[in-house]
UniProtKB/TrEMBL annotation:
InterPro entries recorded: FecR (IPR006860), FecR_C (IPR032508), FecR_N (IPR032623), Ferrdict_sens_TM (IPR012373)
Gene3D superfamilies membership: 2.60.120.1440, 3.55.50.30
Organism classification: Bacteria, Pseudomonadati, Pseudomonadota, Gammaproteobacteria, Pseudomonadales
Name by which UniProt lists this protein: FecR family protein
Pfam families referenced in this protein's UniProt entry, alphabetically: DUF4880 (PF16220), FecR (PF04773), FecR_C (PF16344)
Length: 336
């Protein structure tokens, strides 16, 4: 949230971070000395009062979703530490991070705002920990694999590659990837969302979704199944299918060239829920975009948007759909 244009106040990210820190202290039974120090800080600069007022508004709006994110981040951190087998200090045992998560209920909006402002996103850490190729938010990256196949990573995506004699295996750990597979006579399998896509043709995309994944074929054929014991669905050019952990849905016909235009810097939608559009757009924004209104999230959107300028896309969506938008630390956008 920005100060009105008719004021000369300059509220910096450091002001926001300090304000959020004080907000956390004051929500946790502050001592008389802490209240006195806060009062002195608040009166020292008008920008401090402005930053604190903005922090209070953001706290009220984001407490519930931030508490959820706190729990998710705690689980991700715990998994990351296990994966790294972090050593414990002598004579001390590491406390479960779920207990730490409960403590964050008091400072839930700090998880959403301060941690994002500092780039602290544990789930991204654990995704990247075992990945061979990673793309940053806003970056579309193309890499050549050892067999001559090419993988194009959508923004904020990660893959792990494991080639062995007899099978070429790729794990999509985050985001989405487009594959152009070179035929070598060995199977090429992409694992994502607990299911797999087995290459019978050449060009296709795998995109992770909550609980599963979505596969879109540009040319050739692929076989898709939700798990090793599930039946396989055969897709051809211009078809798409989604699966979760239990079953694969029936294929649908799509304009695959349009749906895969993110490779050329465009995001195309036809009657798509705003929540999905925001999720996609978040890959191109170096922070988090949170939609608080469920009815707003369900509204459908049609259009073609340039992925390189997510703020301009949000402005266009705001003019068409109509919503309130708030910013903090230059890294968090709240829509309601």
């Amino acid at each position: 949230m920005k100060a009105p244009s008719d004021t000369t106040l300059v509220v910096t990210p450091e002001h926001h971070e300090t304000a959020l820190s004080w907000l956390s202290v004051l929500h946790d039974q502050p001592t008389v000395a802490e209240q006195t120090r806060f009062s002195r800080w608040l009166k020292a600069d008008p920008a401090h009062a402005q930053a604190y007022a903005e922090a209070q508004v953001m706290w009220e709006m984001t407490e519930a979703p931030a508490a959820k994110l706190a729990g998710e981040d705690a689980v991700a951190l715990e998994a990351l530490l296990k994966a790294m087998d972090a050593p414990r200090p002598a004579g001390r045992s590491r406390q479960p991070l779920m207990r730490w998560s409960a403590g964050l209920a008091i400072a839930a909006c700090l998880v959403l705002m301060v941690s994002v402002g500092l780039g602290v996103q544990p789930q991204r850490w654990i995704d990247d920990f075992g990945a061979d190729y990673v793309s940053a938010p806003g970056q579309v990256r193309s890499v050549m694999l050892a067999d001559g196949s090419r993988v194009t990573l959508d923004a904020d995506s990660a893959v792990a590659v494991h080639f062995t004699p007899g099978e070429r295996h790729v794990e999509l750990r985050r985001g989405a990837a487009f594959f152009q597979v070179t035929h070598t006579g060995e199977p090429f399998v992409v694992e994502g969302g607990k299911g797999e896509t087995r290459v019978l043709g050449t060009q296709f995309e795998v995109r992770l979704q909550p609980g599963g994944a979505q596969v879109t074929v540009l040319s050739g054929r692929v076989g898709v199944r939700a798990g090793v014991d599930e039946p396989q669905q055969i897709l051809t050019a211009g078809q798409r299918v989604s699966y979760d952990r239990t079953h694969t849905r029936d294929p649908s016909v799509v304009d695959s060239e349009s749906q895969l235009a993110w490779r050329q810097g465009w995001l195309n939608y036809y009657r798509t829920p705003l929540a999905q559009v925001i999720d996609d757009l978040s890959r191109y924004y170096p922070g988090r975009i949170v939609v608080l209104n469920e009815r707003l999230a369900a509204k459908t959107v049609s259009g073609s948007f340039p992925s390189k300028d997510p703020l301009a896309v949000l402005a266009a969506l705001k003019s068409v759909v109509g919503f309130e938008q708030y910013e903090a630390l230059g890294r968090v956008i709240v829509i309601r």
